[in-house]
């Protein structure tokens, strides 16, 4: 299971959509269809279980995210999440950058 690390998040966005609870899978499907329709080059899309923090990971908490990666920009990942919040749908988006091994060890 992957973990969103605060130090790797370089941008984020979220919104609550009133009356859209229960439509998270529909959102994921539509994003996937749109990316395939525009034939974005070198883009890979997959569903992944992600823990939003180390503490939540230890408690077994996880969320499903649509993970989008351009294979040309391997260090960058976009996580798109959708979770019910009462009668609303909480939609979130995170752009992350994981430093390469060389970048991690350089001063």
UniProtKB/TrEMBL annotation:
This is Uncharacterized protein.
């Amino acid at each position: 299971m992957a973990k969103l690390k605060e130090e790797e998040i370089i941008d984020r966005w979220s919104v609550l959509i009133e009356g859209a609870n229960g439509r998270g899978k529909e959102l994921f499907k539509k994003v996937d269809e749109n990316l395939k329709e525009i034939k974005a080059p070198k883009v890979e899309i997959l569903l992944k279980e992600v823990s939003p923090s180390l503490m939540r990971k230890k408690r077994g908490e996880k969320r499903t995210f649509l993970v989008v990666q351009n294979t040309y920009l391997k260090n960058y990942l976009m996580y798109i999440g959708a979770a019910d919040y009462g009668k609303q749908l909480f939609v979130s988006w995170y752009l992350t950058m994981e430093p390469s091994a060389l970048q991690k060890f350089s001063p």
